[in-house]
Amino acid sequence: MGLAAVCLLIAGGAAAQAFEEGVQYVRIEPQPPMTTGDQVEVVEFFWYGCPHCRDLEPAVTRWAASLPDNITFTQIPVMFGGPADLHAQVYYALQGMGELERMHQKLFEVMHEDKRKLKTRDAVDTFLEAQGLDMGKFRESMNSFAVAAKVNRARALMRRYGIRGVPVLVIDGRYRSGSGFRSYQEMTEVADHVVAKVLSQRKAQASR
C-alpha cells in the first residue's frame, strides 16, 4: 500500500446523523480489562505526510485545549514504512529535545504548503538546521535509546489497535474512530461521545 493511500477520507454530505458503533467508531478486539475511576486517554495516530492529518490538526488542537482534567490527549506518529518511519523517529527526537511544540506545525507546513516531503534524512536535516535547531543534539536524540523505545512502543500500539490508516483517534484503548465523518470537528465530537460511553460502562460495572 502506498503511503498516500493510508490517509483516511472524510465523507461529504450535510445530513444530520447519530454516532453509531461500527460506523463512526469501532470496538477494538480483544477488549482490554475495564479500568476504574474517571481518567480516560484519547490517542491520535497521525503521519506528517498525510493531508487529512494536517487538516485535522486545528480542530484537534482546539478540542484538546478545552479538555477536562480527567481526559488526556496524546499524539502517536504511525510507521507504515519509508518516510513515515523516519518522521516518527524525528517526532520523538524533537520531543526528547523539548523542540516538538515549536516544530510540530512547521513540519506539517513544510510538507503540505511548501511541498517538501522530507523523504530522506538529509532533507530532514537541511530543513531543521534552517529552523535554528541544534543539530548535534538532534543527531544524539535520533540515536538515543529513549527514542528507540518510544518508536517500538508506537509500533506495538499500532498492532494492538489495528491501525491501518490515519488520522485515527483511539479512546481508552477500547474504541477507535471509524468513517462517515462530515467534518474534522465531528471526529472530536465522536471522541467526546465515546469517552462518555466508556465512563458510563465503568459506572455500570462498578454498580454490579
Highlighted features:
208 residues; alpha+beta; Glutaredoxin; five-stranded mixed β-sheet; 7 helices; 49% helix; globular; disordered N terminus
Question: Looking at CATH, which topology would you report?
Answer: Glutaredoxin
How far is the first residue's CA from the last residue's CA?
A: 46 Å
The main β sheet shows up as: 5 strands, mixed
Radius of gyration: 18 Å
Derived from helix and strand composition plus strand pairing, the structural class reads: alpha+beta
| CATH architecture tag | 3-Layer(aba) Sandwich
Residues in β-strands, percent = 5-15%
Taking all residues together, what is the mean pLDDT?
A: 92
Order of helices and strands: EEHEHHHHHEEH
Tell me the count of domains.
Answer: 1
The percent of residues in helical segments reads: 40-55%
CATH homologous superfamily, by name?
Glutaredoxin
Number of strands: 5
Can you list the strand order of the major beta sheet? 1-5-4-2-3
Unreliable residue stretches: 1-5, 12-16
Which outline best applies? globular
Broad CATH class = Alpha Beta
Separate helix tally: 7
